[in-house]
Amino acid sequence: MNYSFLLEQAESFVRSKDNGKHADERPFHNLRHTERVVMNASAMARHYKLEDKDFFTVIAAAWFHDCGYYSGGAAAHEQRGADVAAGFLRDLKVDEDTITAIAHCILATRMPQTPENLMEEILCDADLYHLGTDDFADFNKLLRKEREETLNIKIDKNEWRLKNISFLESHRYHTDYCRDLLDSKKQENLEKLKKKAKKEGQVLSNVVAAVPLPKPKSEPEVQDKLEEPEIQKIKKPKSDRPDKGIETMFRISSGNHQRLSDMADNKANIMITTNSIIISVLLSILLRKLEDNSNLIIPTLMLLTVCVTTMVFSILATRPSVPYGTFTQEDLDNKKVNLLFFGNFYRMNYEDYASGMQEMMNDRDFLYGSLTKDVYSQGVVLGKKYRLLRTGYNVFMFGIVSSVIAFVISSIFFSS
Questions:
Q1: 139 close to 130: Cβ distance less than 8 angstroms
Q2: Closest Cα to residue 163, out of 109, 202, 110?
Q3: Strand, coil or helix: 323
Q4: What is d(CA 301, CA 315) in angstroms, rounded to the nearest whole number?
Q5: Cis before 320? omega within 30
Q6: Cβ neighbours for 187, distance < 8 A, ≥ 6 positions apart
Q7: What Å distances lie between residue 173 and 10, 45, 82, 97, CA to CA?
Q8: Using CA atoms, how far apart are residues 382 and 379, in angstroms rounded to an integer?
Q9: How far is the C-alpha of 409 from the C-alpha of 416, rounded, in Å?
Q10: Distance (Å, rounded) from C-alpha 70 to C-alpha 43?
Q11: N or C: more exposed end of the chain, with fewer CB within 10 A?
């Protein structure tokens, strides 16, 4: 079965006017949300190295999981989305087992989420991926706006905040991928809401969990105690690192390295041009007269050697070195690849690169680690350039002096 073709057809259908004519009318549950869910589900599916059929099941479910919103609102939208997916896929002659698996993935996203296998866990986590990202506050505002438009009421911001605190406290990611990647930021988002609630004088002890606590299969029974008030009061210490200062540091460092690299290239070009002129003069004029002035042979050869050697070092300083241009999922998992340098991905397809970039952007340590590697790599290249340039300049300086002295001695003491 051609799963790539089927996914293309599913995407085309979800994007079509017949299906998505109301998709962009919703502030949150719109086509852009679906695209984010698909992208995050794809990254997780590749992380877990799902087989082609399972990969198709997860991604197809991601495309269809919110189709029910466009035909009947939020209530029971998962079932409607599963029905839409089933009807569409039957027309494409997809087998019933796969259609059933896709439907189960979509239905697993109902609150409280109840995934029963890895594919369902991936879709559930992809659907709520934003809870553990820097964009949580923006998406939360869009969701509140959507609820207000749907219910035709004004939702009190304090009440909405308390509901979000309850939801974040009760929510648990199902995959270890998201727990490792997003839990820290999700906790930070929760602490921000709590801090603002306390500032507004809201009592957090009266907050009742909006959703029952789903317990990850890999966690022991003791995790149920996380709902106890005294445990919830424990705050994760925030990092006191100045994010804006760090970003400014990286920006200035990269800019300085780029200027130094441009200066090195200009110096190399000066040496290449200068020595090219000298060599041209030597070959076109002086060599013709060596038969009549044999005493100048050695000084001429010395000068020619100096110029060629200087040009070689200058060319080596500017000669580009490009790596193989690919990276593996293992490199991403181990955070060994620097996706900010074109030499590490120029042979990769866009989907793999975009997935890797998304994974990097959602991981603070991976992102800052990549920026650090980028600055370090620039420094290593600069060090090599300036070492070669210094050698070339030394050869040129001492070689020119020696050659001139040789010409003077030959002209005075050995002229015929």
A1: yes
A2: 202
A3: coil
A4: 21
A5: no
A6: 236
A7: 27, 15, 22, 27
A8: 5
A9: 13
A10: 26
A11: C
CA dihedral 282, 284, 285, 291 (to 10 degrees): 90
CA–CA separation, 180 vs 220, rounded Å? 17
Q: Give residue-wise pLDDT tens across range 152-179.
A: 888 888 889 888 998 999 999 999 999 9
The domain limits of the chain are 1-119, 128-238, 243-413
**Residue holding tokens 């004029």?**
285
Looking at residue 147, what is its pLDDT?
A: 86
Quote the DSSP letter at residue 116. Answer: -
Binning the chain into helix, strand and coil, the percentages to the nearest 5 are 75, 0, 25
- Cα angle: 336, vertex 379, 359; to 5 degrees: 30
- 356 pLDDT tier (thresholds 50, 70, 90): confident
pLDDT digits (tens, 9 = 90+) for 210-224: 434 344 444 333 333
Backbone dihedral angles phi then psi of residue 328, each to the nearest 5 degrees = -115, 165
Q: What is the pTM of this model?
A: 0.51
If phi > 0 it is left, if psi is from -120 to 50 it is alpha, else beta; for residue 26 that is beta
Encoded tokens for 120: 């369902």
Nearest to 43 by CA among 355, 335, 406, 416: 355
Structure tokens of 54?
Answer: 């399972």
Give me the pLDDT at residue 229, please.
36
Closest CA to 309 of 352, 272, 346: 272
Distance CA 40, CA 17 (A): 24
How many other β-carbons are positioned within 10 Å of the β-carbon of residue 223? 13
